């Protein structure tokens, strides 16, 4: 059983019964999940019917080696809109000594959720109860939610290096296989570009160029049109680099370039 199949099995065992639930729990692409589901069905390890996905006859070796134990970080740190639970506030349905008091009728998000530590992707430094970080994967992002009691924990080690590594992997993937690395800490939001931190990323996207192997110059778009112009200018910078061996990068982070880009870039670079 390959890693994708194992991840799908664990998500279904944790309560994911729909494609969206499995995507949210595993972070895998729809295509990879579909292939894993087909393989699991052929091996009679999973059934798809009108009620969704159901695991059946799973060998013990496929079952998660980790358990939540005393950790209830996801019930405390994460937002769960289905039960009106805001971020970093203990769910009102959690009771000390009892656990979740609505476990049998808990929302689908809770049923399908499995953090990256529980899935076995992280070592025990990342155990959410002590790390103060809940890491989970969605289809297009690594999501990190930080406990209010330690809002800067993610900036320290061993956490930041791992997050930077994930970010670079997501950036280097081609096309729609790429993913973002996002951090939520209290009321603040951050996008990681390797070791470069983008505060308050806009919903319209962030354009960026590498400065070193793991740092970037970035521009936060204020509209889809602005993002398109930024990408066009970046493409021109790359062409000038190939032609002349170098190209200066505009300094400001929030500028709005207007075509034509080449003459201004050549003057800025001393190539005009």
| Biggest beta sheet attributes | 5 strands, mixed
The fraction of residues assigned to DSSP E strands is 15-25%
Enumerate the spans where pLDDT stays under 50 for 5 or more consecutive residues: 58-63
> How far apart, in Å, are the first and last alpha carbons?
59 Å
How many whole angstroms does the radius of gyration measure?
A: 22 Å
Question: Strand sequence of the main sheet, in spatial order?
Answer: 5-6-7-8-9
Instruction: Give the proportion of residues in helices.
Output: 25-40%
Total number of helices: 9
Class by alpha and beta content: alpha+beta
Kindly state the mean pLDDT as a whole number? 86
Write a structural description.
By secondary structure, this protein is of the alpha+beta class. The protein is 33% helix and 18% strand. It contains nine helices and eleven strands. The chain has helices at residues 3-13, 19-26, 30-42, 73-77, 108-112, 128-131, 159-172, 224-244, 262-269; strands at 46-49, 52-55, 94-95, 99-100, 133-138, 141-146, 180-185, 188-193, 196-199, 206-210, 216-220. Strands 5-6-7-8-9 form a five-stranded mixed β-sheet. The protein has a two-stranded antiparallel ribbon with strand order 1-2. Strands 3-4 form a two-stranded antiparallel sheet. Helix 1 (3-13) crosses helix 2 (19-26) and helix 1 (3-13) crosses helix 3. The N and C termini lie far apart (59 Å).
């Amino acid at each position: 059983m390959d890693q994708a199949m194992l991840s799908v099995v664990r998500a279904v065992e944790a309560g994911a019964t729909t494609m969206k639930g499995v995507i949210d729990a595993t972070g895998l692409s729809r295509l990879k999940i579909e292939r894993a589901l087909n393989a699991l069905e052929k091996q009679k390890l999973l059934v798809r019917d009108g009620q969704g996905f159901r695991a059946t006859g799973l060998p013990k070796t496929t079952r998660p080696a980790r358990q939540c134990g005393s950790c209830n970080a996801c019930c405390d740190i994460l937002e769960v809109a289905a039960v009106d639970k805001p971020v970093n506030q203990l769910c009102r349905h959690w009771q000390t000594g009892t656990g979740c008091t609505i476990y049998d009728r808990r929302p689908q998000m809770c049923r399908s959720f499995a953090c990256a530590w529980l899935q076995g992707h992280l070592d025990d430094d990342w155990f959410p109860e002590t790390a103060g970080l809940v890491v989970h994967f969605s289809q297009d992002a690594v999501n990190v939610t930080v406990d209010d009691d330690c809002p800067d924990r993610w900036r320290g080690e061993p956490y930041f290096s791992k997050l930077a590594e994930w970010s670079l992997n997501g950036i280097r993937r081609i096309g729609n296989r790429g993913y973002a690395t996002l951090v939520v800490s209290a009321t603040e939001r951050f996008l990681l570009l390797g070791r470069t931190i983008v505060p308050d990323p806009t919903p319209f996207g962030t354009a960026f160029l590498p400065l070193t192997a793991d740092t970037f110059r970035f521009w936060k778009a204020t509209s889809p049109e602005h993002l398109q112009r930024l990408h066009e200018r970046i493409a021109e910078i790359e062409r000038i680099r190939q032609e002349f061996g170098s190209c200066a990068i505009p300094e400001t982070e929030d500028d709005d370039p207007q075509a034509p880009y080449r003459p201004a870039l050549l003057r800025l670079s001393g190539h005009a």
